[in-house]
Amino acid sequence: MSEAAHPLNDAQMQAVHHLRGPCLVLAGAGSGKTRVIVHKIARLLHSGIEARHIAAITFTNKAAAEMRERAKALVGARAAKDLAVSTFHSLGVRMLRADGAAIGLKPQFSILDSDDVLGVLRDAGGCSDNALAKTWQWTISRWKNQGLDASAAAAAAASDAERVAARVMAVYEQRLAAFQAVDFDDLIGLPLALLRRDEAARAKWQQQFRHILIDEVQDTNAVQYDLLKALVQHADPGHVTPFTAVGDDDQSIYGWRGATIDNLKRLPQDFPGLKVIALQQNYRSSGHILRAANHVIAANPKLFDKRLWSAFGDGETVRVVECDNEQHEAERAVARIQALRAADATLKPSDFAILYRANHQAKVFEQKLRAAQIAYKVSGGQSYFDRAEIKDLCAWLRLLVNGDDDPAFLRAVAAPKRGIGAATLAALGDFASQWKTSLFEALHSPMLNTQLAPKAIGALHEFGRYVGELEQRARQTCGTADAKALLLGWLKDIGYEQHLHDGADSDKLAAARWANVLDFVDWIARRCGGDDPAEPQSVLQVAQTISVIISLAERGDDADVVTLSTLHAAKGLEWTHVQLVSCNEGLLPFKTDDDTIDAAALASRLEEERRLMYVGITRARRSLVVSTLRRRKRGRDTVAGVPSRFIAEMKLDEGGAKEDPRERLKRLRAELAARAAAGPVSAE
């Protein structure tokens, strides 16, 4: 059914029609926040604001694509064509491509993925320890999300390890500048720096957007919040671009990656005229499920008053199932899926989800589902784009866009190997460092013969020649069919299929990897076709956007399978039947052995764990089972399981809410035995 066919409720109507000034929409779980956003876009268009002056910002490509499609369905493709619907990071790329020169970036800068960042950090820190480099990566990312550069990080460093990380960060920043490259965090921090340092750029982007809508505002970090402020707060203190922030303080669950609920506290302080509208009617879950969620979250301090309710009636009671251990819990979860599907032939595997706190908990459920021949998918498994063969091809595409991208050069030149060995690359690197140039530029230098033998120089020149020719062809090749032909020809030229066979343990593995490569070629070619057949893109244009797309990619399919997912990955999704598993102290709420955490930090962490439980409960539409373990694994030991405090906080009706499956089976057997003993019942 179309968006227009569903009437908005009173609170949704208020949110849609509030066009002047800042607005905070407190959107409870399942309360229709995306509908509010797309209807508000329609209302803004109807008020006379051009589509290109409306920005809708969210956190994932998947959410942005859904928002764009729903807006298109509501207002029409032509009206929605120029809407700026994107992620924070995609908006950052757009701003830096257009105006990054003001802070020293050329338009063709590269975006480094996580592996590239690790390589640069190992080099910057002079170490080969991947674990140490990952620690630096995490620490530097945390500092960047707080708005700190290397000098500020050095001042804030609280330990010897952090002081080392700050020194590495200073070298890392120099390397990125030399590479004309940015990391993922820079896609937020650098646009903010641009707006703060360059008045012309700030005026341009403030004039560009006449209304900004921000989804999931509770998930913003400090820098993202400051970027929003820089876009809406003009030089005139009384002039604020109208904006609509949509979020839910009860679903703020990403503190571990820099998101801060303090941003919701700051909104009324920074924008005194803020209009706050609460969406409390839930369109997903039944009454029993919502009461359990409301009871749990009531134990947290409240920023804003909000209580979910539903017109769907009470529905099934929420049940607590006690299991002996992880194996028994998985068996019961699979048996429940089988029993419900046997009783209702309309139910599909995709109607079911098993949710847990941490990734390692999935294994036992995978084993039992496979044994039962039930198809499933694991949310949060290895990304398609993390596969080595896809990273190889992305490195080539990045090098076409930016010849100064040294990490891309080093990966591409070895995929496949072409007679350019480690010694040659080391000598080339020394030459490039000496002359302060990129590796690609260095290989064309007439002075390179002072460092390398003619044979090595010949191999480098051949590689450089091919990259240059490929770049020209990629610039000129547009549309799906021509792009696919170019890409397949490139892979044949470099012998990539044979490279996969040479490096694989079996032909079957090589064939699977080649299938991934062909899928990637199809994906790139389709993007070259563009949203509008009349406006195809070149391969080079698509390559310029690929890094940010991949970094945020969710290639989840709509396969008819049971979902196994962490609670974090489940946010924003819903299923007819949900089982929340291993709800025990130490698991949910999760407990670490870190004795250095102070009482305030512990309290804050417990509040976030409670919000995580709330998110899990509100994923269920029709039924919710919460399971707990009598005995559970902790490392190599087996310990007594203590039911999570959150189970008591749900305040479930004790009559019929708690159910041990073995007791139920015993009761059913007793009833059958009693019927058998009574004999057949007379028809009279």
Keywords:
684 residues; alpha/beta; 6-stranded parallel β-sheet; 30 helices; 18 strands; 11% strand; globular; disordered C terminus
Description:
The protein has 684 residues and is an alpha/beta fold. Helices cover 52% and strands 11% of the residues. It is built from 30 helices and 18 strands. The strands form 5 sheets. A 6-stranded parallel beta sheet has the order 3-2-6-7-1-8. Strands 11-16-15-12-14-13 form a 6-stranded parallel beta sheet. Strand 9, helix 14 and strand 10 form a beta-alpha-beta unit. Helix 17 packs across helix 18 and helix 22 runs antiparallel to helix 24. The longest helix has 23 residues. The two termini are 52 Å apart. The C terminus is likely disordered.
What topology does this entry show?
Layout: H1 10-17, E1 23-27, H2 33-46, E2 54-58, H3 61-75, H4 77-80, E3 84-87, H5 88-99, E4 110-111, H6 114-125, H7 130-145, H8 150-156, H9 160-179, E5 181-182, H10 186-197, H11 199-208, E6 211-214, H12 222-232, E7 243-247, H13 262-270, E8 275-279, E9 281-282, H14 287-297, E10 309-310, E11 319-323, H15 326-343, E12 352-356, H16 362-371, E13 376-378, H17 388-401, H18 406-412, H19 422-434, H20 439-442, H21 454-476, H22 480-494, H23 496-503, H24 507-529, H25 539-551, E14 562-566, H26 567-570, E15 575-580, H27 599-617, E16 620-629, E17 631-634, E18 637-640, H28 645-649, H29 654-657, H30 661-678
Parallel strand pairs: 1-7, 1-8, 2-3, 2-6, 4-5, 6-7, 9-10, 11-16, 12-14, 12-15, 13-14, 15-16
Antiparallel strand pairs: 17-18
Helix pairs in contact: 1-2, 2-3, 5-10, 6-7, 6-9, 7-9, 8-9, 10-11, 10-12, 14-27, 15-16, 17-18, 17-21, 17-25, 22-24, 23-24, 24-25
